[in-house]
């Protein structure tokens, strides 16, 4: 068992090496570097053309992240935009929470709660979301006995973050501007 300071230093050094490798890749291969930095099993699909919203419908998204997320095309477009900004963990966490709340089986709920915690909440999680210490503590306390509302506070914080920061940038993006033409 290593002392905590060595373990932490090791993780930081390993992370720094990963970042250095990815940056080196970016500098060498500007055309395909994004696929190497974000290794998706397959390239992200564009939303199907058949369900493309009318410009009027898309205009409503400017003022309502909720309306945007309720629309399949809107959700896919917003997710694609967040991927381009390297902040897709926020929408992925939000979607994981939505799926979690629909879970009926206590056993499945406990499994999903553990997975969401390990993937998005715990310190140095692979897709750690930006929540304050108090919210993290409340969420951890809620997970002692998982319920449909265990992640509510954290999900609301991330929703507010996307609404305040990401939505205005999305509205100014080419992706969105094409939809409202």
TrEMBL record:
Entry keywords, A to Z: Cytoplasm, Membrane, Signal transduction inhibitor
GO BP term, example: negative regulation of signal transduction
InterPro entries in the record: RGS, RGS_RGS5, RGS_sf, RGS_subdom1/3, RGS_subdomain_2
Any one cellular-component term (Gene Ontology): membrane
Entry's localization field: Cytoplasm; Membrane
Domain RGS: 64-180
Entry-linked Pfam families: RGS
Function, in words: Inhibits signal transduction by increasing the GTPase activity of G protein alpha subunits thereby driving them into their inactive GDP-bound form. Binds to G(i)-alpha and G(o)-alpha, but not to G(s)-alpha.
Protein name per its UniProtKB record: Regulator of G-protein signaling 5
Source organism: Nothoprocta pentlandii
């Amino acid at each position: 068992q290593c002392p905590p300071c060595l373990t932490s230093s090791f993780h930081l050094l390993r992370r720094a090496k990963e970042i250095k490798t990815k940056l080196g890749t970016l500098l060498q291969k500007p055309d395909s570097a994004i696929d190497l930095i974000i290794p998706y099993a397959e390239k992200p699909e564009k939303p199907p053309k058949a369900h493309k919203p009318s410009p009027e419908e898309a205009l409503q998204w400017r003022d309502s992240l909720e309306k945007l997320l309720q629309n399949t095309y809107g959700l896919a477009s917003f997710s694609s935009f967040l991927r381009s900004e390297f902040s897709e963990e926020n929408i992925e966490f939000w979607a994981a929470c939505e799926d979690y709340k629909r879970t009926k089986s206590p056993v499945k709920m406990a499994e999903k709660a553990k997975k969401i915690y390990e993937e998005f909440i715990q310190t140095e999680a692979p897709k750690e979301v930006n929540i304050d210490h108090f919210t993290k503590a409340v969420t951890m306390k809620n997970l002692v006995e998982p319920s449909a509302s265990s992640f509510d506070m954290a999900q609301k914080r991330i929703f507010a973050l996307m609404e305040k920061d990401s939505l205005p940038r999305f509205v100014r993006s080419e992706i969105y501007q094409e939809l409202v033409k």
